[in-house]
Amino acid sequence: MLGNKAPTQDGEIAASDENKEDGSISQKKLEFPRKNYNAYFHFVLEQEDIISKQDPSMLQTEVISLVSKKWNSLTDSEKKKYDQIAEEDKIRYDQELKEYLRRVKTSNLQNSKEKKAKIENQIKEARNDQKSEVNKEEEEKEDEEEDNNNNNEQIPMIKKKRRRKENKKEDEEEEEEKKEDKDEEEEKEKIRKKKNRRKQ
User: Fold this and answer.
1) Is the pLDDT of residue 71 over 90?
2) Cys-Cys crosslink for 41: which of 20, 29, 37, 188, Cβ 3.0 to 4.6 Å?
3) Per-residue pLDDT tens digits for 92-109
4) Does some domain include residue 21?
């Protein structure tokens, strides 16, 4: 038996395998369409099934030989039927070939768009990564500047506190000196009074 089945005698084209939900094209429909057959080959396909069913024991070569004899015995008028089938098959092939080429082009365009979109996304992600890195560096720089500013602001305060502490210490030392001077004066006064009492 031959592998390829003949098209219908009225040349009807098989229904589309397009996905009705998303309009995508199945892998099967992207296969190259079957080449059209001539009138004799359509006759062979028809008679092959009939003869094989009548005598399944016949060899393929015997079937083809018998079909060839039958074809040669047909009149031109009888052959016109198969000429018409062959013509319709050619129309079918031309239409399917045209549709195939259109779909291949559409598929290639779609793949090209997807590839372009993928590349654009990769570029966008790379730019975002670079931007994030720059932003991170800027944030780190801003944090460093802020720390420096805080340190600069704290330095006068530290100096001021230090000066206050030093001033306080000086005041305490001065107060201590005054107290010592006072104590010394009091001691001297006591000594003078004591001497005066002795003189009296």
Assistant:
1) yes
2) 37
3) 999 999 998 988 888 777
4) no
5 contacts: CB under 8 Å, gap ≥ 6: 45
In whole angstroms, give the CA distance from residue 104 to residue 97.
10
d(CA 64, CA 70): 10
Instruction: State residue 40's pLDDT score.
Output: 94
Task: Give residues with Cβ within 8 angstroms of 170, minimum separation 6.
Answer: none
150-200 confidence digits (pLDDT tens): 555 665 666 666 777 777 777 777 778 778 778 788 887 877 777 777 766
Question: Does residue 94 sit in the same domain as residue 172?
Answer: no
CA distance 104 to 31: 9
What is the Cα–Cα distance from 97 to 101, expressed in whole angstroms?
6
Both structure tokens of 72? 């040669």
Is 10 among the domain residues? no
C-alpha to C-alpha distance for 13 and 94, rounded to whole angstroms: 11
Other beta carbons within 10 Å of 119: 10
Lookup result for tokens 């009149």 = 75
| Within a domain: 112 | yes
pLDDT tens digit sequence for 12-61: 334 344 444 444 444 444 788 999 999 999 999 999 989 988 988 989 89
Compute CA distances 194 → 40, 103, 180, 183, whole Å: 162, 132, 21, 16
